[in-house]
Specification:
The complex is a heterodimer of chains A (153) and B (160). With 153 residues, chain A is of the alpha+beta class. Chain A has 4 helices and 5 strands; from the N terminus they run βααααββββ. Chain B has 160 residues and is α+β, with helices and mostly antiparallel strands. The chains are: A alpha+beta (153), B alpha+beta (160).
Chain lengths: 153, 160
């Protein structure tokens, strides 16, 4: 039985996951597979772009964030997936050698009207570099199974 | 890529198709989104999805890769005609990403992207911002993913 249910995500709660070192090798490998643009593949070509040097694909940042929250808490939860991402903002380049952390904040929580066994939790996730500066911010809603389906809230 | 000045609202890019298999679904999810319904057929069968489903990030990344390949083909065609090509990126992000239906083993998703807004950049005088909505539709005609992204595109400036 997973430990975390919808009821366990209280509005305002904050948790931090990581750190996770992001290497040049994985930035280039990810880009070669999914987002082969020069700014993610090659230092010389990247320095001529608006990114001003090699930086991870923004989608790589998304996938790193996903993996960190999966390992951080989703595996021990009643996760039922997600209907989508309200917003993803890539604020600063993610450079090779950065130690990233993810800060998760619960923004909102509500039971599903149509499915009494499910609740919805809106999160803000911030991807932070070693100095605590935010490289990316994501707002998303996740679906979780309820400990007490249909109970009054 | 076409230069910013040559991009019109309503321009459509038919970026291509991608077929999801048990192997590519599990390979992606094992690395980036190893929730049980993306990596384990038996656990997925017991979940509310009823069978193995692709990570939503996989559905999005399949579009991204096809989009890059599509742009490369457009660039090669322009260069072959002797036309200069514009630089594109980085993107600012995306919004309103909706995973509208689960993507199951055997689904083939056709993706297209449509320009919905263009505006000049205040911070980058040599670039404009292009906003486009991308959708993926399965073999039954049902939309499975939709998102709105914004990226820099180089302006023609004084280039011919």
């Amino acid at each position: 039985m997973p430990k975390l249910h919808w009821e366990d995500f209280q509005t305002g709660a904050v948790a931090v996951y990581g750190p996770r070192l992001v290497t040049r090798e994985e930035i280039v490998a990810f880009a070669a597979e999914f987002d082969p643009q020069p700014m993610h593949l090659d230092e010389a070509a990247a320095s001529a772009t608006l990114l001003g040097g090699l930086g991870a694909s923004g989608w790589h940042t998304c996938c790193l964030l996903m993996r960190m929250i999966a390992d951080g808490f989703l595996h021990d939860s009643t996760s039922m997936g997600s209907p989508g991402i309200e917003e993803m903002r890539w604020l600063k380049p993610l450079r090779p050698g950065t130690q990233i952390r993810v800060r998760a904040t619960v923004l909102e929580s509500r039971p599903s009207k149509s499915r009494p066994e499910m609740g919805l939790t809106k999160f803000r996730y911030e991807v932070l570099d070693g100095t605590g500066e935010s490289l990316a911010e994501m707002t998303t809603t996740a679906l979780f199974g309820r400990r007490q389906p249909g109970a009054p809230t | 890529m076409k230069f910013f000045e040559d991009i019109q609202v309503g321009d459509v890019f038919e970026v291509g198709r991608y077929t999801f298999t048990a192997d590519n679904i599990k390979n992606f999810a094992t690395r980036f989104d190893p929730q049980s319904f993306h990596v384990d057929e038996e656990a997925a069968a017991r979940s509310h999805f009823g069978a193995l489903v692709a990570s939503g990030w996989h559905t999005a990344l399949a579009w991204m890769r096809l989009m890059i390949d599509h742009r490369r083909r457009m660039d090669e065609a322009m260069l072959a005609r002797g036309e200069p090509v514009a630089g594109i990126g980085p993107a600012l992000g995306f919004r309103e990403l909706k995973w509208l239906k689960p993507v199951y083993v055997g689904d083939t998703i056709a993706y297209k992207s449509e320009v919905i807004e263009t505006r000049l950049s205040e911070s980058r005088p040599h670039a404009g911002l292009m906003t486009f909505r991308s959708i993926g539709v399965n073999q039954n005609g049902e939309p499975v993913i939709s998102l709105v992204s914004t990226t820099f595109v180089e302006r023609r400036g004084d280039k011919p």
